[in-house]
């Protein structure tokens, strides 16, 4: 793999980022990333002895989270008091 763990702000060309950078990208906490890394869809990638996350799996998780936010089901109560 190329371009991993380079400049923290230049993750766009990377295939793997560390956990802290993944949390920054996702706008979540490091513990949230670690939880999804251990029990969720994030793919682990260990590079140079550091725990990392593949950018592709991070993008999929972020898109899934965004789509879940968009689909908010609302319960609407309509009352007719005209009678």
Record keyword descriptors for this entry:
83 residues, Multidrug-efflux Transporter Regulator, Chain: A, Domain 2, two-stranded antiparallel ribbon, 2 strands, disordered N terminus
Topology:
Elements: E1 16-18, H1 19-26, H2 30-39, E2 52-54, H3 55-70
Antiparallel strand pairs: 1-2
Give a verbal description of the structure.
It is a single chain. The chain is mostly helical and 83 residues long. The chain has one domain (11-70): Multidrug-efflux Transporter Regulator, Chain: A, Domain 2. The chain contains three helices and two strands. It has a two-stranded antiparallel sheet. Helix 1 crosses helix 2.
CATH topology: Multidrug-efflux Transporter Regulator, Chain: A, Domain 2
- Specify the helix fraction band: 40-55%
Query: What Rg is obtained from the alpha carbons, in whole angstroms?
Result: 19 Å
DSSP strand tally? 2
**How does the helix and strand content classify structurally?**
mainly alpha
Uncertain ranges = 1-8
CATH class annotation: Mainly Alpha
Oligomer: single chain
Number of domains: 1
Mean pLDDT: 80
Q: Helical segment tally?
A: 3
């Amino acid at each position: 793999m190329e371009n991993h763990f380079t400049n923290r702000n230049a993750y766009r060309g990377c295939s793997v980022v560390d956990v802290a950078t993944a949390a920054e990208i996702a706008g979540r906490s490091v513990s949230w990333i670690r939880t999804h890394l251990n029990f969720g869809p994030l793919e682990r990638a260990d590079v140079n002895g550091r725990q990392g996350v593949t950018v592709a799996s991070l993008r999929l998780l972020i898109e899934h989270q965004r789509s879940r936010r968009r689909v908010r089901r609302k319960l609407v109560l309509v009352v007719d008091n005209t009678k």
